[in-house]
Every structure is written in C-alpha cells, then in structure tokens.
Design goal:
- This protein has 326 residues and is mainly α.
- The chain has one domain.
- The protein contains 16 helices and no strands.
- The protein is globular.
Length: 326
C-alpha cells in the first residue's frame, strides 16, 4: 500500500527578496539621466563674466549638483513605487522593453522590492533636506526668492508621484518645465544675488527641454497613464489635440528664441546659436507625427535638449572670453 500512496508535494518556499546591488539602486535613482544636472555648467557659463573662473564657484556648484542628485533620486524612487503599485510602469514598459530598457524600472524588473525602494526614497529625501540646507548656508547670496525656489523645487519633486502626487493631478507638464527653470535660476541667484531678463530666457529654454521630451513619453504612455488615473494632456485629449499641443509648445520655444532678441532681451547671437535646435525640433515633429515613431522622436528630443545646452554654454563662454566676437 505504501508503494502506491501519493506523496503530497512539498510546500513551495516563499519568494526570496532580491539582494540589492549598487547597480540596482543606481538604476532606481536614474543616475544616467543627466538632463536636469547639465543646467549647472550653463549657470557657470552665464555667471562667468560677473564672477570669473573661481574655484569656490565651482565647489559651490558641485555641492548643488550632489543636492540635485539626491532630490531626483528621491523623486524617481517614489515615482517607481507608485508606477509599480498602479501597474502603469508594467503597462508602459512591458511592450517596449527592448527600446526603453525595462531594467531601468528595477521593481518591475524584479531587482528591487517595494520596501527596498521606499527605504531608499526616504533616505534620499532626508539627504536632500540636509544638502539643500547646506547649499543655502554656504551660498554667497541668499535672496528670498532663490531660497524659496530651492525649497519649492525640493518639496514639489518629492511630491511628484507621492503624497500630493502632482504628476497625477494634471500638473506634470508644468512641473517638468518648472524644475528645469528653477534649477537654473536658483543656483544662479544664490551665486550672483539677482537675475536679468536674458538669464530668465535661457532658463526657460533649458526648462522647456525636459518638458518637450516628456510630452513624447506621455504620448507613448497615454493608454497606461489613463488606466492608472494619471492625468496628462496625452491621456486626457484626443491624439489629434495632443499633436496640436506638442506642435504649439514647440513653436512657442522657437518664438521665445527668436522673439527675445527682437524685444531687446537677448543678444543677436542667442538666436543664431540656437538655429540648429529649431531644425532639430522640426525633425522631431516629422519623426513623431508623420512617420509615427514616437519613441524615436522622444530619443531625439532628449539629444536636442543636450545639444541646446552645449550650444548655450559655448556661446556664453565665447561672449565672456571673446566679447568682441559676439
């Protein structure tokens, strides 16, 4: 009888949490996304005629860089937890894993657990508060608007997909441009003490870059965001209206680049320096909405933002060192 008895299968062991690695946390913090950090070399180039090439200026901007990295690490960690919980990351990245690198979403990829990501996000938030307090304490100038701007950028970033969930309430596009503008104006103000119209224009152009490539991301992710209740323009309007919206904001950037000189705010070389950017923006629209390859247009928009910053840095440096040339 014993030979013919069915032996019940052994109970399966509970899943073992993955051992976190530095690489997994680096992907959680999105350390490869530098598009907000590259505003700091632009700040240096804009401040150079006023402050000169001083070691203390470089040291201060390096401290700001570390503070910004901590803020972004907190923001994207909480964003990944929220996207993992509501299923939007699995929906948006699952079908495009080869093109969008699913490994960049370590919770969906299974290389980190939700508690691990939450602990990291909370630690990054605490670090951000300490670092930005240190930035303000060591700043050469502390105008009230710059201090308030630094606090606003920190609080809004942590609340991007957590707490108030700004990006879920219809403010994502405003946040994307606002953070870029803030992270140019705030360090500049803390270094110099004030800003002029041309600095504001360059900050607006800089902030527009992440917003524009974010619009292409939202276009691709519209169905997943809609299912998760995330309010973006692409998720709430028709594809045609979304296309018109992106074209209008692209045209607005071009108008800012050309019109600021006509209004006497920017020098003539500003428009000339950014002519390649205008051409690249047109190419993005063609690839995204004529050829229908939104992810390729998004990738090109990221590169366009980086080209924009390089051109602005180069032009500002030429204007500082060779004022007779420009």
């Amino acid at each position: 009888m014993t030979d013919h008895m069915t032996v019940p299968p052994a109970a399966s062991a509970p899943p073992v949490a993955p051992r976190p690695t530095p690489g997994a946390y680096a992907r959680l913090a999105k350390l490869d996304i530098v598009d907000y950090y590259i505003g700091l070399p632009l700040v240096f180039a804009m401040a150079l005629p006023l402050l000169g090439a001083r070691a203390d200026t470089v040291g201060f901007l390096l401290l700001v860089l570390v503070a910004e990295v901590a803020v972004v690490a907190a923001m994207v960690s909480f964003d990944d937890v929220t996207g993992y919980r509501d299923g939007s990351d699995a929906a948006n990245y699952g079908s495009d894993a080869a093109r969008r690198r699913l490994a960049r979403k370590p919770l969906v990829h299974g290389t980190l657990t939700e508690p691990q990501a939450l602990r990291f996000g909370r630690a990054a938030t605490a670090t951000s508060v300490v670092l930005w307090t240190l930035v303000v304490a060591l700043a050469p100038h502390r105008p009230l608007w710059a201090v308030a701007g630094a606090a606003l950028c920190l609080v809004a970033s942590v609340q991007y997909s957590w707490g108030l969930k700004i990006s879920y309430r219809g403010f994502q596009e405003i946040f994307l441009v606002g953070l870029g503008v803030g992270w140019v104006l705030v360090p500049y103000g803390l270094l110099v003490g004030n800003v002029d119209g041309f600095v504001v224009v360059q900050a607006l152009v800089f902030g527009g870059g992440p917003m524009i490539f974010g619009l292409y991301s939202n276009t691709n992710d519209a169905a997943g965001d809609r299912a998760a209740g995330r309010i973006t323009v692409a998720a709430k309007v028709s594809p045609r209206a979304n296309k018109v919206f992106i074209i209008a904001l692209t045209a607005l950037e071009t108008l800012l680049v050309t019109g600021s000189h006509l209004l006497g705010i920017a020098p003539w070389w500003f428009t000339v320096a950014l002519l390649p950017v205008i051409a690249l923006r047109v190419a993005q629209l063609f690839i995204g909405f004529v050829l229908g390859d939104i992810l390729r247009a998004r990738r090109m928009a990221i590169h366009t933002h980086r080209v924009t910053v390089v051109l602005l840095i180069g032009a500002n440096l030429v204007a500082a060192f060779l004022p007779g040339v420009l």
